[in-house]
Amino acid sequence: MMGLTPRQSELLEFIRSTWEKSGRAPLIHEMMDHQDTRSINSIQRRLRALEARGLIEWAGRGWGWRIPE
């Protein structure tokens, strides 16, 4: 996707595929495992960057991140 870093694109695809498979957003720790990082902050920065571009949105407590329609 244009303007995204490779790690942001990878995370976005992981969120999309998790939604398709399970009907829920992945947990932060699942995202960390998928991206092979121990840094919550790095995942949160990527999530904020995706949100700023309108590619994901926070659906509220208990729902996590979702892909806007």
TrEMBL record:
The name this protein goes by in its record: SOS-response transcriptional repressor LexA
Pfam families: LexA_DNA_bind
Domain LexA repressor DNA-binding span(s) in chain numbering: 1-59
Listed GO MF terms: serine-type endopeptidase activity
One example of a Gene Ontology biological process annotation: proteolysis
InterPro entries, A to Z: LexA_DNA-bd_dom, WH-like_DNA-bd_sf, WH_DNA-bd_sf
Top-level taxonomic group: Bacteria
